[in-house]
Amino acid sequence: MQRSGSLAPAARVFLRNWLVYRRIWYRSLFFGFLQPFMFLTAMGVGLGGLLVASRAAFGGLDYIHFLGPGLLAATAMQVATFESTYPIMNKIMWGRNYEAMLSTPLGTRHIVLGELGWIGFRLATVAAIFLVVLTIFRITATPIALLAVPVTVLTGWGFSASLIAFTATQRNDLGFSWIFRFVINPLFLFSGTFFPLTQLPAPLQVAAWATPLFHAAELIRGLILNRLDPATAPLHLLYLVVFAAVGVALADRNLARRMRA
Amino acid sequence: MPAASDALVRARSLTKRFNAFTAVDGIDFEVPAGGSFGFLGPNGAGKTSTMRMIACASPVTSGELRVIGMDPRTDAREIKARLGVVPQIDNLDQELTVRENLEMYARYFDIPAAVARQRASELLEFVQLAERAKDQVEPLSGGMKRRLTIARALINEPELVILDEPTTGLDPQARHLLWERLYQLKRRGATLIITTHYMDEAEQLCDRLVVMDKARIVAEGSPRQLIDQYSTREVLELRLPDADRGRRNGQLDGLADRIEELPDRTLLYTDDGERALDAVHARQIPVESALVRRSSLEDVFLRLTGRTLVE
After folding, report:
1. Do A103 and B93 touch (CB under 8 A)?
2. pTM for this one?
C-alpha cells in the first residue's frame, strides 16, 4: 500500500460526489437557507418573543441568540447523519458503487477519506449559509463567528464517521430507524440546542453532558456570540476531535472488513 | 529474479474458506497470456470466489496466487491498475450518465481527463453505445448495461479482463452481440478469463477451460480436447414412455459406449448416433422421440460429475 498517495485517490471519490451534486446544488443551497430561516422565524422570533422574562435562564440572552447557534450544531449532526446512512448503504449494497471503485487502484481507506472530505465540504457550505441567516437575524457577534464553520465540519465528521462505521456493519436498513429514534432524535432534543441543560433532572444533565452534540453546541454558541469560556472551550474541542478520530478509525476498519468479505 | 512462467495467472493449492465453508478447495491452474480462458461449472462451484481472489477483491485463505507476476496480498493496487473486471451483478453508477460512468471510472485509475474523454468515445463506439452517451444508466436494457460494463472494464487498457458470467440473464440476441464483441476484444490481443455455466458460451468463447465442481477443478483442456477425452463423438437422446421406466432392465445394453439416465430423457453415448437409433428400433423398444446430436461440454460435465450444468 502506497502511503504517500492517499489523498489524490480520495479526491476522486470526492469528485464523483461532486459530479452528482452539481446537478442539484442550487436546490441544496436554497433549502440550506430556507430551513434555518423558517426555524429561527418560528421558534426564535415567534416563540422566543414569549420568553423575554426568562432571559436569565438563557445566560442573559434573547432566546433566538441561544437557539440559533445551537441549531447550527444540531444541523451539522442531521446533515452528517443523512449523508452517512442511506447513501453509504446504497454504495455498499444496493448500487455497489464501492465494489466498482475497489476494482480500480482505490482502496477502502481512500473511500472513507473521500466520503468524509465530501461531507466536510457539504457541511462547510451548510455552515456558511447558516451564518448568513444568523447574520440576517443579527445573531452573529464578531468575525470570530467564522470559526464556527470548521467546528461544524469537525462535529459533522464525528457523526458521519461513526455512522459510516455503523452502516458498514448493517445488512439492511432496519438499523437506521433505530438510530434515528433512539440516538439522533434524543440528541437533537436534549443536548442544549433548544434549552440549557440545567432544565433537565440532574442524572439526565450528566448524560447530556457526555454527548457530542452538547459540546458542539456549546463551542459553536461561544464562537458565534463571542462568549467563549476559555476554561471549558478546549475541553469541548478536545471531545469533538477525539469523537471524530475514533469515528474515522472505526469507519476505516469496518468498511475494510465489509468489502473484503 | 527470472519469471517463473509465462502464465498471466498462476494458482497453486489456491484455497478460499468462509468460516467452515470451503468455496475453493486447493485448485491449481495457469492462465496463459493471450486468448480466453474459461471456468465452467454450476452455480456454487467456486468460480466467483476464484475470480474475486484474482481481482484482489477477496483475500486468499491459503495457497499461492500470482497475477501478472505479482502477489495480490502485497501488490493489490498495482495488479488492479492492470486488470479489467466485469462483475456478475452490474455495479454501474446509477447517478451518472453513460459517458460519465466511463470518464469517472478512468479518473479512479488516475487517467488524465483528456485521455479519459478520448478513450470513453472510442469504447462507446466499440460497444455500440455512442448514441446513448448522454443518457442515464437506468433505462438501458440488460444487454446495453453489460456492454457498458465491459467498456468500463477496458478504460485502463488492461492486460487481463475478468468476466464473471457475462451473459447470464440476457436474451439470445443480446448474448450473441456480446459474444461478438468479446471475440473482437480477443482478436485485439487481450487475455480474457470468463466464468460461465453455459456450455455453448464456453464452446464459443474459450480457447482453454477448466471445469469446476464443488470447489475443485475436475478437468482441464480445450473444449475439443475435453469432449474427445470425456465423451463420444455423438449422442442419441431418447424420450421413452414413462410406463416403461424400470421395466427396461437392460433393453438398451450394448447399444452405446455409455448410457446416462436423466429424469426426462436417456442419453446414449456413441460415435454413430444414427446406427444406435436403428438398433433401438430393431429391438422394437418403444420411443416417444429421438434426437442425434454432437457431444458438447454439457456431456463432459455430466460424465465428470453425474449432474447437468443448468438445473
Report:
1. no
2. 0.91
